[in-house]
Write a structure and sequence with these properties.
6-stranded mixed beta sheet, YoaB-like, RutC-like_sf, alpha+beta, RidA family protein, single chain
Length: about 120
């Protein structure tokens, strides 16, 4: 019988966190933010989702296999602009369970962050 640690895969690990954790064919991504924290909400959302895409592929998954997402917005006034990008990013019929909340993000320039849980593609 495998030990718990053998059943958990951690990718890009440092002292504080892992970029990806895989357990029981479920992928957990660390919070993803934009590549340019000084960009507008549309660009931040686009690059944040591109970062999530890359990690999902690295983990053996993809955006059509996202089970849940939590989106953190610095300001809810950006909700519609963020959703415009989000809605175009998702394939029809593949919307995950989702929450969107207003939150203070670790660096004040970031406008949006996403945390994703997805299934491994078999």
């Amino acid at each position: 019988m495998a030990t718990t640690e053998k059943m958990i895969t951690r990718i890009d690990v440092n002292q504080r966190m892992s970029s990806i954790v895989i357990h029981n064919k479920t992928v957990y991504l660390c919070g993803q933010v934009a590549t340019d924290k000084f960009a507008d909400i549309t660009t931040q959302t686009q690059t944040m989702l591109a970062e999530a895409d890359a990690l999902l592929v690295q983990a053996g998954s993809g955006r059509n296999h996202i089970l849940s997402a939590t989106i953190y917005l610095k300001d809810m006034q950006d909700y519609d602009a963020m959703n415009s990008v989000w809605d175009n990013w998702l394939a029809s019929g593949h919307a995950p369970a989702r929450a969107c909340v207003q939150a203070a993000i670790a660096e004040p320039e970031y406008l949006v962050e996403v945390s994703v849980v997805a299934a491994v593609i078999e």
